[in-house]
């Protein structure tokens, strides 16, 4: 990170339950010989104990479409933000400039992986293998001053 005040530090990856209790952690000690993608390797390692236990993983930006396919084969449901520059993501979603705050669009692959594009202040992309990932509902959002968003 370019503006990070301390250039050296530790990376600790943690798998927590829904209450925030730490179930497992891994300290990054450098690249391994078998490493293809750091985020994917970490998630695969930290999810090994979840195989066949009907859990849902939520994570942020460190994963790919291929990782979700792999987790699905292990009966692990997953959901998280994704960088749209990753491969195998749909190109047919609404253009950013055509979206207003609160708008969304989605597409489901042949592998049943949903890619959801939602505009808040910025565009957010989500990949999910959740059963109802594309089900929508009305929510009420407010600005900091309490004004309702439409």
TrEMBL record:
Short name of any one Pfam family annotated for the protein: DDE_Tnp_1_7
Domain PiggyBac transposable element-derived protein, first and last residues per copy: 1-148
InterPro entries the UniProt entry points to: PGBD
Protein name: PiggyBac transposable element-derived protein 4
Organism: Trichonephila inaurata madagascariensis
Taxonomic classification: Eukaryota, Metazoa, Ecdysozoa, Arthropoda, Chelicerata
């Amino acid at each position: 990170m370019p503006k990070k005040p301390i250039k050296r530090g530790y990376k600790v990856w943690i798998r927590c339950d829904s209450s925030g209790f730490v179930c497992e952690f891994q300290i990054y000690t450098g690249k391994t010989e078998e490493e293809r993608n750091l985020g994917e390797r970490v998630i695969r390692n930290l999810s090994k104990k979840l195989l066949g236990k009907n859990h849902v993983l939520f994570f942020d930006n460190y994963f790919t479409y291929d990782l979700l396919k792999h987790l699905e084969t292990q009966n692990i449901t997953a959901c998280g933000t994704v960088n749209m520059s990753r491969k195998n993501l749909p190109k047919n979603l609404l253009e950013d400039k055509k979206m207003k705050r609160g708008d969304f669009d989605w597409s489901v692959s042949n592998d049943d992986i949903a890619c959801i594009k939602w505009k808040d202040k910025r565009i957010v992309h989500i990949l999910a293998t959740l059963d109802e990932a594309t089900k929508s509902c009305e929510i009420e959002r407010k600005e900091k001053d309490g004004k309702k968003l439409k």
